[in-house]
Amino acid sequence: MQPDPDPATLARRLVELREEHRDLDTAIAKLAGDPKCDQLHLSRLKKRKLKLKDMIAYFENQQIPDLDA
User: Is 2 inside a domain boundary?
Assistant: First the structure.
């Protein structure tokens, strides 16, 4: 089993992921409003945003202490 990462490192990584998620949200909204936008690029941005959401959930779960210990 892997040792628990440093809580400060987890918190810092969460901030970075949330910021990137927010930036992607802005970019997606901007592109979606453009009728000439590249749909493939928009789709890739949406997939990246979903992946970030999963990563955020994973790191949030890592911050919850293991009560079985």
Answer: no
